[in-house]
Amino acid sequence: MEPNNENRVIDITAMEVHKVVSPPHRSTFQKLKNRLKETFFPDDPLRQFKGQPLKQKLLLGAQYVFPILEWGPNYSFKLFKSDIISGLTIASLAIPQGISYAKLANLPPIVGLYSSFVPPLVYAVLGSSRDLAVGPVSIASLVLGSMLREVVSPTKDPILFLQLAFSSTFFAGLFQASLGFLRLGFIIDFLSKATLIGFMAGAAVIVSLQQLKSLLGITNFTKQMAIVPVLSSVFHRTNEWSWQTILMAFCFLVFLLLTRHISMRKPKLFWVSAGAPLLSVIISTLLVFAMKGQKHGISIIGKLQEGLNPPSWNMLHFSGSYLGLVIKTGIVTGVLSLTEGIAVGRTFAALKNYQVDGNKEMIAIGVMNIVGSSTSCYVTTGAFSRSAVNHNAGSKTAVSNIVMAVTVMVTLLFLMPLFQYTPNVVLGAIIVTAVVGLIDVPAAYQIWKIDKFDFLVLLCAFFGVIFISVQNGLAIAIGISILKVLLQITRPKTVMLGNIPGTGIYRNLDHYKEAMSIPGFLILSIEAPINFANATYLKERISRWIEDYDAEGGKNKKQSGLRFVVLDLSAVTAIDTSGVSLFKDLSMAMEKKGLEFVLVNPIGEVVEKLQRADETKDMMRPDCLFLTVEEAVASLSSTIKYQIPDNV
């Protein structure tokens, strides 16, 4: 960088320099305790117990474990009126969705209703969200069914498939609850927003394509999930297409999409789209029954078992050749359902200005799935569509989940024969309508505008899901996201700083065009923690900065020779032994070149480690440590006469 051409020789009087002091002494135990607290207990959940009598501590402890004890004593009939309306509303959506999503998971339709009965009751006691409506969801259903179907056929061995589904649900719940108990919720943060948007869009496409079997009336359909074999199966089976089924599919798809559009345009009419699936089921069932549609190529659900959830703990697999499969399936579906549930809960909590405890939610969803696996339920979580309806219907507490569960219970006990003639084509149309909302084009465009690398992650997740498989597409996207983080760690940003004329502010020369370099000074800022992964890179990069400065000085005879290398460490939040070695190596290299090596604003941890390593007291001398770049430049410049710009 060339200095201003108009230079003059002046004496710079040293300004007041503030000393860099060592942090207060703390023992290793205190440091470890603080680090563990910030890692696992950033919300400090025990602070509410401080200074409380034993009786109050026991009450607070019970309320922490069972949130229903916190709001339950103040529950009123006014709140119940709102909750019963929202509960009945989401039940009208949960019943047809439960049946549809169970078929998506290759499970008996009745299992979808079982999963809409017990889990909501468990969540109402343990959950902290007022708006989350619990039940089966499309993505988890798709992943569960596809992963298990790769090994076991749901048609040839339905009992074993059902056992593996319940076992996977158990391990999903165990994994989720463990994350909550061990305070390891940050693990799910590896599913970035870009990954989720791309994955859900890809999964929505796959789910919709899978419904072509029902929407076209195809009998022999491919078991593969990727887009190519699915479309190949569709167009190679044109002889199986049923015009009656296609006509019914078209009519109900138009109806469901129209009601969804109305509710999106006018949120007060939420009940239009909420009631549309159940109304579609009723109308289509009556039509098939009256016209004997099953004799004209329209497939129907058939007879469903009446009664409440039978116990299924004796069906769980904890050993044998399928143990690895159910653990893997449980972890994948557990992470996906947990991510969706917490994201949905936090979204609506922000709208109503209350807090949702992430770790409580993990425990609640985990316990819900563990209990569900023993009561003939498969993986459940908080679904966005049902939760949105619950929120718009005026839900006040988790009692709306209880109302929904009671409604499903009545259905299981008394209304199951009514679903015998429900056509599969309508269930397919309900699924397609539900997953269309997972394709978020505006969010994808926003990511494209903000961060092209994140958009690449989104595309990898999307195309990986539709062209390879659901789980592999997700794995590829997560891998690229982790690669991005590793690149940011191993290749931290370093910038050259210059002075903004008339101020003591120093900023990036490439960013602020008015900023000017200081003759004789190379001022660099490192904008990341320094550790073993990036120490070698930083050493090479700083050496290259020095070489570039010398090369530029050789071309420009008016530029003063380099005397000082100043490192601004304001953004260096941590350092390890490799980082300490980096500074020692740089200090010795500067000394050999006749340069002075100066550090600016190192934080407490960095100062402490450098002082311990500086046995000769050369690197951490008072004249090599400054609080600000301005003080460093003024102090060092006062010792010599320079040609500098007028405005410095």
What does this protein structure show overall?
It is a single chain. With 648 residues, the protein is α/β, with parallel strands linked by helices. The protein folds into two domains: 409 residues, no CATH class; 152 residues, 2-Layer Sandwich (Transcription Regulator spoIIAA), CATH 3.30.750.24. Helices cover 58% and strands 6% of the residues. The strands form three sheets. The chain has a six-stranded mixed β-sheet with strand order 5-4-6-7-8-9. A two-stranded antiparallel ribbon has the order 1-10. A two-stranded antiparallel sheet has the order 2-3. It is elongated and about 100 Å long.
Question: What's the quick description here?
Answer:
The protein is an alpha/beta fold. The protein has helices at residues 28-40, 54-65, 68-71, 77-104, 109-114, 118-126, 138-149, 158-181, 193-210, 212-216, 227-236, 243-265, 270-291, 323-352, 358-373, 384-392, 399-415, 424-436, 441-450, 452-467, 470-490, 535-555, 577-593, 604-613, 629-637, and strands spanning 7-10, 134-135, 381-382, 494-499, 506-508, 521-526, 564-568, 596-600, 625-626, 642-645.
Number of strands: 10
Radius of gyration: 32 Å
Report, as a whole number of angstroms, the end-to-end distance: 15 Å
Total helical segments: 25
Structurally, how many domains make up the residues?
2
